[in-house]
Amino acid sequence: MQEQNAFYQLSGTTAMLLLVGFYGLTFLMSLFIGKKKENVDSYMVSNNAVGFGLSAASMIATWIWAASFYASATSGYKYGLSGPLHYGFWGALMILFIYPYGRRFRALAPKAHTLAEVMHARHGTSSQLIMAISNLLGSCISLMVNFTAAGALVSVLSPLTFIQGVLIAGLGVLSYTLWSGFRASVMTDFAQLVAMILAAIVIIPLIFFNAGGTDMLVANWGNLSSEQADLFSTTAILEQGAPYFVAVLAYAIGNQTIAQRLFAVREDLIKSTFLTATIGYGAVVIGLGMLGMLALFVGLSPADGDMNNIIPQMASTYLPPFGIALFFILVVGSLSSTADSDLSALSSIMMTDIYGKNMVRGKPDPKRMLWWGRATMVVATMIGVIFATMQLDILVMLVFVGALWGAIVFPVIISFYWDKVTNKAFTTSVICAVALFTIARFELIPIQGIIAIAFELFASAGVGVVLGLMTFAFFSRNIALCVAFLAIVVTVPFAIGFLRDYPVLLSSLTSYGISAAVCIAMSWKNKERFDFSLLSERVKSFQQESASSNDASIEVDDQPAPARA
């Protein structure tokens, strides 16, 4: 096995020039779209009028973040041929499956800023706060992950320290996002994605050919186990594919960065934007995952046993200095595009759901609202930097946030289609799902005997819920119900006695199953029917401006057109 303990390092001067140049250019770009008198709706969702090119690019750039960047390579290294496909393909489906539901959300509440805001109009404060708090936690953790990854990259590939890397990334992202908010995030996402794609086009083939090309693949095929050489590996499906498949809807529904772009893009461009983002994200992430697979072929051992070192090691081993500089920009761009999206998401949640809907009860002062948004960005950056410098293990927090997002998927979606769902049913179903997820995931009680069977039955129901929701996105309710029923019937015989050995998959599926069961049971006999037309009346723009057409900074792709009814 090849042991790589030393990384090629850029000089301190080169690293600083690359960082200052990258963040300096993005800051200058943000100056061109700044306004002296900011509109709060433009600051959060660009007045719901973002064009096709910017929307698709922003969606792709936002979701190529630290976790997907490094985890795709780890997946390729651990699972071989099928690893990158599992990670990139199911991640892309996350974007694909949200757009039909997104069109429903926009049709009911075309002027919304956050999904939690719409839940407030549909159910009330408790449901809204569940959504808002889960989004706040998720975005804060994402921010920490990206700052941590930036610090690690800088410390590995330059003489700068980890803390210096974290501080530079934090201040750099804040500098260009603070004043213009979401508009700056979308505009810089486009430039960052272009830079990332150009760098990837150079880096991935260069590593492949420098590592030996096709001759190396043929000669080193023996380094792969039978499972790693199998494109349909059972191990990869159970440990990587299936859990990620279950998670795709949770991330799509629970993450404000996607919802924010959903509410920002022109309504008639939702389908084309999300389809393009699906293809773009899948292609880039699968390509990055191939670097991990190449590391497996050449017999590379991750430095210090850390899988996150795979990509930096491959770059350091097989790239010339200019290639390492390109790789440096590739990673910094991917981390920054997601970090600025997290800051924009956090500010919109604080402005809309905390200040606008709760602190002032729907009567916000636009100037004060903007102050809350910008203050949130500053505080969130400080928190992200502090926790990143502590290098905490954030896996447990990610698990909890993922569980909370999985628990809310069914109640959120069904609330926009079934007029009998109540606030009590929504809240209770989420609480029950999170509680049972925690028990199963961390085995707080022995998962065996009748208890294990009960969890496996709920998990089987979860399979039906996931497949049913994905079917319902594109087909009729009756077809979705048939798919869900058949999925449960087929899954139960295999799940009993089997799923208990896979706690991650068992707990995630249980979260879906129990939330659906409780929500349906509590809403079934409700005689009150909700009038969905009330949503558009209750969810309005916060600030009406006669000169809103001046907000052309984001509408550069296309001229704004009337949204479809």
TrEMBL record:
The chain crosses the membrane at residues 6-33, 45-65, 85-102, 129-154, 160-179, 191-211, 231-253, 274-298, 318-339, 369-388, 394-418, 425-444, 450-472, 479-499, 505-524. Keywords: Cell membrane, Ion transport, Membrane, Sodium, Sodium transport, Symport, Transmembrane, Transmembrane helix, Transport. GO terms for biological process: sodium ion transport. It is found in: Cell membrane. Residues 543-552 have a biased composition (Polar residues). GO terms for molecular function: symporter activity. It is a multi-pass membrane protein. The keyword Lyase does not apply. Its main location: membrane. GO terms for cellular component: plasma membrane. The keyword Cell membrane applies. It catalyses: L-proline(in) + Na(+)(in) = L-proline(out) + Na(+)(out). InterPro entries: Na/Glc_symporter_sf, Na/solute_symporter, Sodium:Solute_Symporter. Residues 543-565 are annotated as: Disordered. Belongs to the sodium:solute symporter (SSF) (TC 2.A.21) family. This is Sodium:proline symporter. It comes from Advenella kashmirensis W13003. The lineage of its organism: Bacteria, Pseudomonadati, Pseudomonadota, Betaproteobacteria, Burkholderiales.
